[in-house]
Amino acid sequence: MDFSRLAAALDGNAALQRRARLAALSFVVLGGTEPVTVRVGERITVDRGAAANAAFGLTASPATWAEFFKPVPAVGFQSLVGMQRVGHLRVEGDILAWGRHMLFLEQVFAALRPGAPSSPPIAVGEPVIEPIVGRYLRLDFNGRPHRLYFEEAGQGIPLLCLHTAGADGRQYRALLNDPSITARFRVIAFDLPWHGKSSPPAGFETEAYQLTTQLYVDTVMAVSRALGLARPVVMGCSIGGRAVLHLALRHGAHFRAAIGLQSATHAEAGADTRLRDLGVLFRPDIHGQEAAAGTVACLIAPTSPRADKWETLWHYMQGGPSVFLGDLHYYFTDGDLRNADLAGLDGKCPLYLLTGEYDLSATPELTAELARVTGARHFEVMKGMGHFPMSESPVEFRRYLAPVLDRIAAD
């Protein structure tokens, strides 16, 4: 394990070079043949031994580092934060310094892996206007006026798409542009209040945003009814994958079917909860949206196309202050379904479940158990995919989604 290669991590990357100049950071890496100290500044240096004044230490076993070094590591070894999450990596020292630089360090440590084959840039050719139409919907629900943004394309069976926590409807851009899908489905992706182009309701400056089960269900039902959707299919990912279960429980007859991407009854907090406990997503001394991207980068598969991976992370970097944190209240606490009676849920609303193998949050094991309890008519693990299949690897995702849509259209 040659950690000296970290010294070359800035080469040819202007964005990392700019960040490194402002980082003024040192840390220790343990678990190789000997400890090394990595210093970040105008350039990166790697020295033998553990410096006493280093901000923190990253400790993992030689076997863990060896797996991390592979071009395509096993599940749980795809990133530093991922290894911390599942307990393969210990972070000791200034945990806030670690949280402040997570995404930057993931990019630095990527230099330890063999470079992926470069692909030629994709040329657009002649200018193209996409078939997606974006509109604003004004409606009242829960006693308050809202202005919500949604995009749609296609015709036929309504397919209402729910985005992940802290992100927005842009995650479904590939589905909205897929003529083989929009020929039969009216694909609709809306931004939850506070997200994307949807404004928070008036008076938001006095509130601490928190997403609850009731608020989420009410929002989806209000949008569906306002748009006059007749027996729509609802598809959601992550918190949206949880929401489709609540919608099926409470309003199953309203929907033709529910598609859960990364669905589970609950989310595991992980082996190390210190960053969450310290509120790293909403602190004045940390860029909360970069931290948000840093916390979810570990959920993306190492084989996902680079451009799609970084566009997915960009959506997280653009979120409003504390919005991701407010969504996680639903994901980890209020929306927990472990005590709910889910037996035979498929009988209330046909249920289809798809989960990426590299997801460390809603793992394939959790979704498999959900499929067993609910009697879901379809469950499949999506190989080489993570937590954001529709945005991190849209071409591969279509291979799994298309047969599900075929079955729904045929019913």
UniProtKB/TrEMBL annotation:
GO molecular function: catalytic activity
InterPro entries to which the protein is assigned, alphabetical: AB_hydrolase_1, AB_hydrolase_fold, Carboxylesterase_BioH, Epox_hydrolase-like
Record Pfam families: Abhydrolase_6
SUPFAM superfamilies according to UniProt: alpha/beta-Hydrolases (SSF53474)
Domain AB hydrolase-1: 159-397
Gene3D superfamilies: alpha/beta hydrolase (3.40.50.1820)
Name of the protein in its database record: AB hydrolase-1 domain-containing protein
Species annotation: Reyranella soli
